[in-house]
Amino acid sequence: MSNKFLAIAIATTLAGGVSIAQITPPAIIEDFKPSELNQPGQEYPQVNSQGYARFKIIAPSADSVRVSLGLGGRGGTKLKQLADSSWVGTTEGPMDEGFHYYNVRIDGGKFNDPGTLNFYGSTRWESGIEIPAHDQDFYALKAVPHGKVEQILFPSASTNTSRRAFVYTPPGYNNNTKKRYPVLYLQHGWGEDETAWSNQGHANLIMDNLIAEGKTEPFIIVMTYGITNNARFGKIREFKVDTFQTVLIDELIPYVDANFRTIAKPSHRAMAGLSMGGMETHTITLNKPDVFSYYSLLSGGTYTPEEIKDKSKVKLIFLSCGSKEKPEGVKNAVTALKAGGINAVSYISENTAHEFLTWRRSLHELAPLLFKN
Amino acid sequence: MSNKFLAIAIATTLAGGVSIAQITPPAIIEDFKPSELNQPGQEYPQVNSQGYARFKIIAPSADSVRVSLGLGGRGGTKLKQLADSSWVGTTEGPMDEGFHYYNVRIDGGKFNDPGTLNFYGSTRWESGIEIPAHDQDFYALKAVPHGKVEQILFPSASTNTSRRAFVYTPPGYNNNTKKRYPVLYLQHGWGEDETAWSNQGHANLIMDNLIAEGKTEPFIIVMTYGITNNARFGKIREFKVDTFQTVLIDELIPYVDANFRTIAKPSHRAMAGLSMGGMETHTITLNKPDVFSYYSLLSGGTYTPEEIKDKSKVKLIFLSCGSKEKPEGVKNAVTALKAGGINAVSYISENTAHEFLTWRRSLHELAPLLFKN
């Protein structure tokens, strides 16, 4: 893992990856509605049509209430106490479209907003808010045939426990009992876990919609927890990939091939990961060129042509990031890979940073390219 | 729904269902360990070998911090601020074994404990703590073959959306592709949702362990959200069962029978529910005697012999509750049902109240009795 990658991952993750779209804020339009990620029946937080977020916290005798969103590293949004004793505040400017983690500081303690659902990020279950994206239709819940997300517990001798993974099987999997499917192993980022891709990532809905439109071949997606050594939580520098590689290659893949109708060949196996999961993908695909043929790093670094020892074994390298990250790095890497004779594709998510809308869009672009050749 | 049921459900649910096992507390043994439901890496809350819980909350400039657990309706446990500015407190006495929901009051606002995982109860995602039960082995994660918990999205014309359910399929389901299975439809309680039985209920682990011991026939369990009308959240009196009955009978069951290898006959279909889910089970099984043959109410009321119009269609009625609820009501109902010629079984969970250890144990007792005759 390069120091550059570390710096990006830590800086953007710790800041919540949030940036303000405009420095001079426009007049606020008072059309706020509850965020779609609110707990049932909860009115706050709210989002308006410009992407402003408004928070309301009940803590009558608190001295200070602050939300981590709104100004990235600059302290977030300070709420003010109203006459009814509730604390209310609106972000100083519109936020990027998509999903944002956040937390609430109350009198110096870090809590979640009781109004929202929680999502595992930054090594804790955090509050989440969704700024509706103009292209949200591709991950919307629609009246199309739906695949399933299955929780499996697979035996792991190397870590001496049963480990959890989530497996997406496409619509029709249960009925076409002769058909076999390719598999994408899809990893979360630092501070997240195996719930991320189906909760905040909507991987299942992205696939259901693509399949309904005939835009991708149906395939299975397997998502498991990518940290298996004893790295203390929050200590990314202690992370080592080798123990996870053992779990993935020697335990999870054989279990999936034995228990799902997979096409158990390298030509029908892909690995992708976001951020730290991209680093894992980079290392493991290079260590195990006979296991995967499709490699993808989402805001998770790049490959050089020199790293690919046998080009005939790599069917696709897909690299992506948000336009607010380092898009030139991704584009230049793909140019070099292509010049080196490797089938490589880049994708830049417009107006997004190191956050989940980048990765939802990346999966949406990646899926149709997988298992095609 | 009887007023008595309502009163019990509301009183025990709102109080967190927690009671103190002893009035004169013994000396506290200082062997506290992190609760098994803590978020990764979190040291607090802690539980000792006597069942005391100790909480620690960081909120340096707060005026008051209180945890809802410890004294039921009497205000819970007040934390005290230590010299390091953290807030710490221990329950006044030992708590009942098993799972408890709770929340934290900080300066008058209701939040979750950042140390714990959250569980949907009381119509919100709440903090959870587990007091290790002497019989916890029956729901422990063991090195046995594991079934899967699948999230499905099924089309619901009556509510004009895709609705979520979780489906437990037993070990071997994917490999024995000829075998068909009976199905238990299993409902959560008021304020909970379709996540309850597999999260705090451990239904999947209870089944995996029973199947590994040869104590139950493998069967499928289907868990969905039991509130489908527009009852405002938290307003149990607005709840109506008829719209849920339509979803269950006309939409979910046909979907499950079409997409899983079920034995699609009333003789191989059971319905059970806890608390409000028991009320639903009571109403729907009586309304639809040609759909289910096995009925079970867990802390969720009783049947009278007069309610059963055709005894030949009822293979089993299983009624249960905690010994701290109204066990005589359950026992007397079963005596009357038996006298009326109905195969009825009662189960009383010792030293538990209207909480999930009662229901974990009830499922553990119920499963071996299902689909036997």
How would you describe this protein?
The structure is a homodimer of 373-residue chains. Chain A is of the alpha+beta class. In chain A, 21% of the residues lie in helices and 26% in strands. The first copy, chain A, has 2 domains: 18-132, Sandwich (Immunoglobulin-like); 138-369, 3-Layer(aba) Sandwich (Rossmann fold), CATH 3.40.50. Chain A has 7 helices and 20 strands. In chain A, the strands form 4 sheets. Chain A has an 8-stranded mixed β-sheet with strand order 13-14-16-15-17-18-19-20, with helices on both faces. In chain A, strands 1-2-3-7-6 form a 5-stranded antiparallel β-sheet, with no helix packed on it. A 4-stranded antiparallel β-sheet of chain A has the order 5-4-9-10, with no helix packed on it. In chain A, a hairpin with a 2-residue loop joins strand 9 and strand 10. The longest helix of chain A has 18 residues, at 242-259. The two termini of chain A are 30 Å apart. Chains A and B meet through strand 10, strand 13 and strand 14 of A and strand 10, strand 13 and strand 14 of B. Strand 13 (148-156) of chain A pairs antiparallel with strand 13 of chain B.
